[in-house]
Amino acid sequence: MIYKESKKSGATRSLSEFIVRTDYSELPSDAIGAAKKMILDTLGCGIAGTVISRNEVEPVLKLIADLGNTAECSLLVSGKKTSWLNAILVNGTFCHSIDYDDTRAGLTTHIGAVVVPTVLSIGEKLGASGRDVISAAVIAYEVVYRISNAVMPSHYHFWHSTGTNGTFGAAAATAKLLGLNIEKTELALGVAADQASGLISCIEFGDLTKSLHAGLTAAKGALAAMLIRNGATGPKGILEYNRGYCHAFSKEPKIETILTDLGKSYDIVNNAPKSFPAVLGSHCAIAATLKIVKANRVSADEFKAWVTGPGADSLPDNYIHHRQ
User: Fold this and answer.
1) What kind and span of H or E run contains 272?
2) Where in the chain is the domain with CATH 1.10.4100.10?
3) Among the listed ranges 42-56, 74-88, 103-117, which one has the minimum average pLDDT value?
4) pLDDT digits over 91-116, tens only?
5) 127: left (phi > 0), else alpha (psi -120 to 50), else beta?
6) E strands, 67-176, in order
7) Which CATH number is associated with domain 11-274?
8) What's residue 8's pLDDT?
């Protein structure tokens, strides 16, 4: 089913209809396969994060211990049970902590670190089936992609897309798993938009905030849907509203693209695991450098001496060529 904006419903409402009405049986096999791949890849990143980034994320672990626990959802690796909110916060933070989690070319958005911890924790809390979890993941990826695409590229000048646009993915996934109707799903997206945050300065400073963008964003998005389920109110039409999300987070929003061919294809197939724990735009350069290093049998110590030694500035541009 292809969803289009009508005179009676704007982009937010139509996107909510898509979330509610899309069923697992309608999903193409490549989207289902991609979802399974992204879930496994994200879990792998999270497992590695619990080892590599343990000290960095320790403040978050201490925080949830202080908050107290309802033993309902699992933490990565340890398997310890905590509340759904705590589990999403911790697992999401770990999944993004080593910067190896999947990304989408052109959007600089790490969707998996937000969506996967959400669908697994909420799915565990509700006793959801595997099909329910997969369909929620596919739909959530699509929602994040479409909203991210609508606000890029100017959005990235100030905002870290994982922390901002990712909020909608967690809200959509939770709303889907909770079985919220169209009206409540639209409200959940409205609350999620209001709570979206995450400055791009996280990349420049390299502190915990970047990893927190996945964990906190996932938790806030899920919280938005949970609040609506419990009777909270929220804004309608937040994406297209003239002082709403798209206009606030982009200089030139492309709101009309949110619904272009919605339901015809699923963008999760265009997400990919990262080959290196670095921004996607650097991967070609990294791969080319490694190829040169391997071909010329350059040792780590030798390379370090070249780039840090007193004669580094005087090396000829074709130095590698002369070594061959």
Assistant:
1) strand 271-272
2) 11-274
3) 103-117
4) 999 999 999 999 888 888 999 999 99
5) left
6) 73-74, 81-82, 103-104
7) 1.10.4100.10
8) 55
